[in-house]
Automatic annotation (TrEMBL):
Gene3D superfamilies: 1.10.150.870
Biological process (GO), any one: DNA replication
Residues in coiled coil: none
Catalytic activity: DNA(n) + a 2'-deoxyribonucleoside 5'-triphosphate = DNA(n+1) + diphosphate
Keyword terms: DNA replication, DNA-directed DNA polymerase, Nucleotidyltransferase, Transferase
GO molecular function, one term: DNA-directed DNA polymerase activity
This protein's name: DNA-directed DNA polymerase
Domain DNA polymerase helix-hairpin-helix motif: 210-297
Transmembrane segments: none
Pfam families in the record: DNA_pol3_alpha (PF07733), DNA_pol3_finger (PF17657), HHH_6 (PF14579)
Domain Bacterial DNA polymerase III alpha subunit NTPase: from-to ranges: 1-44
Domain called DNA polymerase III alpha subunit finger: residue spans: 47-190
Top-level class of the enzyme under EC nomenclature: transferase
Length: 482
């Protein structure tokens, strides 16, 4: 619903939709927001009818009138029910993954319930915030500040969420306190954050639908994802450390003439804002220069020297220190005084850097070519494991790669491991508790390893001797102890 203090037709075009007669506007939401109009979503939910029916049933059987607005928010039995995960049929809490999180978190106050709903979304789950919140609440993970210098200033903002940023309002409050943002500027920051969080989600959906997603390319990519025939080209703005001003500079330079001929031509033509070592390294690792036929490893080895060289020339040119005759042609020859060495990283390293910059594997995947091995050893995909219909109490076998391993220690001094298990359809956090987990961490930390594990309904590794044998074979005979 679009709201305005003035007549809507003074600001936007409106029409009556043929199918149902509802009055709508031809402008999209961002345009309406730019015009200063307020958009609100009103959801019609079947659950509201269920609540009304239950209130009537209680009235007819007990004679008691229940006021939903006066329900106590500290009812112990309700929180015990939530902690057991007995929420099948409860709005937003009836999924298998959500019920597992409830059992891990064991909420005991209304703030926990608010955090639960906010955390169970693709963005926070991709950063493991949902599990970290539960583990910090139950004392299984140490509460660490986002930065030592900000621990005291942000205690008021992040104290109730165990040092984690969960709500957009927290992002806005931090931007105000740390960076001096106004409320309006802080709100804009959260809208940009939302777009970034959704990039990986949309890319996975394209893969599921059989649409080929092409890696970013400085010669072809625009700001956002764009169609290229039946394919989709990754947008430059989705690359880590590449901001909007950098993307604008690259696209403007490309449009002024034509495609960039090579790495040297790129550095020479783009504005100074693009010539940043961190930005250039991110573009290289994301594969954005692959159309130049330069190998990524070689570019990383020389990019700092190349950037230093071109920055010096551009500064001299801007200060008017070029000679009168042929300065630009002579300067261009100086942009490279180093040769790009031959040789490329192995596939594992290439994909690891690509995932670091883009949030997931784009050009290839470590599991491509071994799907049949995983299929023969696993009886459940991660997507199915995260589905709504997986029964509780069932032990399943899931195959994939282990990565991002973190060694943890409980308050009692017991060691355990938190790692990501990923297949071609998704990723999920797995907990491994065993006396030898220190060695597991050291073995797995060096890179993803293909494995098959058995998980219980709490997403913990099922403690069977056969599984421990499989992990020993994967990670080394001494990794899990005797």
């Amino acid at each position: 619903m679009i709201m305005s203090s003035e007549v809507l037709t003074d600001y936007i075009p409106i029409m009556r939709r043929d199918s149902d007669g509802v009055i709508i506007t031809q402008f999209d939401y961002p345009t309406c927001e730019t015009l200063g109009l307020l958009k609100m979503d009103f959801l019609g939910l079947r659950n509201l009818t269920i609540l009304d029916d239950r209130l009537k049933a209680i009235k007819s059987t007990t004679g008691e009138d229940i006021d939903l607005l006066k329900l106590p928010l500290d009812d112990r039995k309700t929180y015990e029910l939530l902690g057991r995960g007995d929420t099948l049929g409860v709005f937003q809490l009836d999924g298998g993954g959500m019920r597992s999180l409830l059992r891990l978190m064991k909420p005991d106050n209304f703030e926990d319930c608010s955090a639960l709903i906010a955390l169970y979304r693709p963005g926070p789950m991709g950063a493991d915030s949902h599990t970290n919140y539960a583990l910090r609440k139950t004392g299984m993970q140490e509460i660490t500040p986002i930065h030592p210098e900000f621990e005291e200033p942000l205690a008021e903002i992040l104290g109730t969420t165990y040092g984690l940023i969960i709500y957009q309002e927290q992002v806005m409050a931090i931007a105000q306190k740390v960076a001096g943002f106004s409320l309006g500027k802080a709100a804009l920051l959260t809208s940009v954050k939302d777009d970034k969080d959704k990039s990986a989600l949309y890319l996975n959906e394209c893969r599921r639908m059989g649409i080929k997603v092409l890696p970013p390319d400085v010669n072809d990519s625009d700001f956002d994802f764009t169609p290229r025939g039946s394919d989709v080209r990754f947008g430059l703005s989705a690359i880590r450390n590449v901001g909007g001003n950098v993307v604008d500079g690259i696209i403007s330079a490309r449009k002024e003439k034509t495609r960039f001929a090579d790495f040297k031509d790129f550095l020479w033509r783009v504005p100074m804002v693009v010539c940043n070592k961190r930005v250039i390294e991110s573009l290289i690792k994301a594969g954005a220069f692959d159309s130049f036929t330069h190998e990524r490893k070689g570019l990383v080895m020389v990019h700092e020297q190349a950037v230093d060289s071109i920055i010096g020339i551009k500064k001299n040119e801007a200060q008017g220190q070029d000679s009168l005759f042929g300065a630009i042609e002579g300067a261009e020859d100086q942009t490279f005084d180093v040769q790009i060495p031959p040789g490329e990283w192995d596939k594992t390293t290439l994909l690891a850097f690509e995932r670091e910059m883009l949030g997931l594997y784009v050009s290839d995947h470590p599991l491509f070519g071994v799907e049949h091995i995983l299929a023969s050893g696993a009886d459940c995909s991660i997507a199915a494991l995260q589905g709504e219909n997986r029964p509780d109490g069932q032990v399943v076998t899931v195959g994939g790669i282990l990565s991002g391993v973190q060694r943890k220690v409980t308050k009692k001094g017991d060691t355990w491991v938190l790692t990501m298990l990923e297949d071609l359809e998704g990723a999920i956090e797995v907990m491994i508790a065993h006396p030898g987990t220190t060695e597991v961490h050291l073995q797995v930390h060096n890179g993803p390893k293909t494995t098959v594990v058995r998980l219980d309904d709490r997403l913990r590794v099922a403690p069977s001797p056969a599984l421990m044998g499989d992990l020993k074979q994967l990670l080394g005979p001494a990794c899990l102890g005797a």
